[in-house]
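User: Some background: our group keeps a shared notebook of sequences we're curious about, and every so often someone picks one and asks for a predicted structure to add to the entry. Today it's my turn. The entry only has the sequence so far, pasted here. Could you supply the structure so I can complete it?
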Amino acid sequence: MPDLTVAQNIFLGHALRKGPFVDRKAQKAEAKRLLVSLGPAINVTAPIRTLRVAQRQIVEIAKALRAKSRIIAMDEPASSRTLRNSKSWRRLLAIYLRNVSASSM
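Assistant: Of course. Here's the predicted structure to add to the notebook entry:
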C-alpha cells in the first residue's frame, strides 16, 4: 500500500486499538521501536512510496517481527544497494533472529 505511512503499513490488518479507535500514537511508537532494533533510521510517518527499496525491505522485516513470524521468504534480498553488502544483510538477519528468539521466550 504505497500511500500508507510506514507505521500504518506495519500494522495493516493488525491495528493497535484503544477501545474502538485505532491508537495511532501507540502504533508510531511501536513501529519506531521495531525499526530502531533493525538499525537504520526510517521515518514512521513517511509514505511507503517515498522509501528506497532497501528501506521497504526493512519495513517488511519489521512487519514480520511485529507478527512474530518464524519464517520470512524474501525474493533477492541482497539486490538492493543498501543490502548488497552481504555483511549488512547478515547483520540485519542476525538482529531479526535475536528479536524473534527474545520474543518467543
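Suggested note for the entry: The longest strand covers residues 17-18. The longest helix spans residues 86-103.
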